[in-house]
Amino acid sequence: MSRRKLKTVTPGEILLEEFLNPLEISQYRLAKSLKVPSTRIAQIVKGNRAISAETALRLATFFGTTPQFWLNLQMEFDLRAAKKKHQKRVEQEVEVMAGSE
User: Fold this and answer.
1) Topology of 11-93 in CATH?
2) For the chain, what is the HEC assignment?
3) Which residue of 4, 17, 55, 93 is surrounded by the most CB atoms within 10 Å?
4) pLDDT per residue rounded down to tens, the chain (101 residues)
């Protein structure tokens, strides 16, 4: 049986598909409500910018979520991307601590 790998979804895609589109909120309106530059929201949605702790606080306040929700999305995305890019090399280069094998 072959395993199909799912595309890693960015936090920006979740912001767009699970929040902005269903609530019919434009990226511009969100940026204005958060008091951040509209380019910040556009870059997050495009996957060209990470969600910072400050932006997580602003998103959480606006949407009634927690900052941890947004930071966890970002952390999970970052970790998956790092594993995809570096896992094999890390396993080859890093020595396992004695006694933990």
Assistant:
1) 434 Repressor (Amino-terminal Domain) (1.10.260)
2) CCCCCCCCCCHHHHHHHHHHHHHCCCHHHHHHHHCCCHHHHHHHHHCCCCCCHHHHHHHHHHHCCCHHHHHHHHHHHHHHHHHHHHHHHHHHHCCCCCCCC
3) 55
4) 556 666 789 999 999 999 999 999 999 999 999 999 999 999 999 999 999 999 999 999 999 999 999 999 999 999 999 999 998 998 899 999 987 66
Q: Does residue 63 contact residue 19 with C-beta atoms inside 8 Å?
A: yes
